[in-house]
Amino acid sequence: MKTGLASKILKGDASAAAKLISEIEDETPGALEEMSRIYPHTGRAYIVGITGSPGAGKSTLTNNLIGLFREKKMTVGVVAIDPTSAFTGGAILGDRVRMQEHSADKGVFIRSLATRGWVGGLAKGALGAVHVMDALGKEIILVETVGSGQIEIDITRAADTTVIVLTPTAGDEIQMMKAGILEAADVFVINKVDKGGADLLRANLELMLSMKPHLPGEWQPDIVLTEAIYGKGTGELAAEILRHREFLVNSDGLEQRQKERVKLELMETVESYLKDFIREIDKGDYLKNLVDALSQGKTNPQSAAREITGRLARDLSRLQSSDRANRKAS
Amino acid sequence: MAPPKNKIKVLLAQFPLEAHSRGIITVAGMLKDAGMEVVLIGNELPERIIEAAIQEDADVVGISTYCGGELALGTDLMKVAEEKGIKDNTAFLLGGIFPPRNIPELEKIGFSGAFLSANKEEIVACIEKAITVKKGAG
Known about the structure:
The complex is a heterodimer of chains A (about 325) and B (about 140). Chain A has helices at about 5-10, 15-25, 30-40, 60-70, 125-135, 155-160, 175-180, 180-185, 200-210, 235-250, 255-280, 285-295, 300-330, and strands spanning about 45-50, 75-80, 90-95, 110-115, 140-145, 160-165, 185-190, 220-225. With about 325 residues, chain A is α/β, with parallel strands linked by helices. Chain A folds into three domains: about 1-40, no CATH class; about 40-250, P-loop containing nucleotide triphosphate hydrolases (Rossmann fold, 3-Layer(aba) Sandwich), CATH 3.40.50; about 280-330. In chain A, β7 (about 185-190), α9 and β8 (about 220-225) form a beta-alpha-beta unit. In chain A, α2 (about 15-25) packs antiparallel against α5 (about 125-135) and α4 packs across α10. Chain A is globular. Chain B is about 45% helix and about 20% strand. The longest helix of chain B has 18 residues, at about 120-135. Chain B is globular, with a radius of gyration of 14 Å.
């Protein structure tokens, strides 16, 4: 039943795309093989990251952008991420509710994902979901991150254009300096301008940006003022995103971004393999004995950790040589 | 902790004219506490509920109802689900305030559970059972 998801996706089957995204999230055996089949057909979509603090208006802005890009005859994919509860493993995915007006449009594919223990603002299957939507033929993919603030900026490495959404109540320029968002954004949005204080925030932001050293020919992030709930200023935002795309296309920026993304994905995948592997040491008495020795003061954490990494390295190399033997046999 | 496998994904919706949302929010919280992933989409027509369920690859579609029309709209929902090929592998549940005499008919048209009132354990048990039946059959 499950074979052939990749070929269905390449023919534009949305339901197959939805299934493969679930399989990536669940790490279903066979999902990686399907992914490797669609991989040659990816790399065409333009990826836009939308990040900002919880309640800043990311979903409402994303909803506006879907409509605006559809007017330009572009097909749109959306990956909307919300946090998994660290206590129960459950999640409330409440971004889609702001985007439902597009749910009957065949040119739009929206998928909500829970972070499932990932930090960095993305979700476990987020990059995979982007590839699937790309292979499905979506031309522009909007990735809405978890409501984030200061460290969750993986999206800047995954996206071609990163939009950071601020609100007038978001804090003063010191907040902006420490958050590191000045370096992260390609486009700044100040949403909820009707709340008052937007001019002050813009002035502060402009000041901070002007103090940041920049090289000639480098992209200068613009600041767009919006009132997303009434669709005000969102046309300018869509135009600014496309202007940034043009800038990247006309420089070597697009290729650099793509390399960053591939690297991020590669390292995340290696890390996730290793994490699975590390969990293995908790089976049997091995870890328990080490912990006992530690709590009795017979060893120290550094030596114990070195013992464990030594064992992992031996296990890994044994695994590789048995892999090789298997391949020769088959 | 081992990585979560095959987490249950639930799509919760209300039919278009529903104005009461306390119930759906309460149930969403219960299911989240039970470790499920809950997609909220608000008030929607049957076609759009099913389209969202497909894109989200939901295991369960839950409908909250108070202001009536659950039989007519529920029938429409099942018809679209069948056309789109997800009726057999998706569990449908309904809860809220409606005439108890409609329960047999709701079950007949395809709802695995129709609740007038239920606690978290009952809803979770019904979902788990319905999924086992549906996925086992698929």
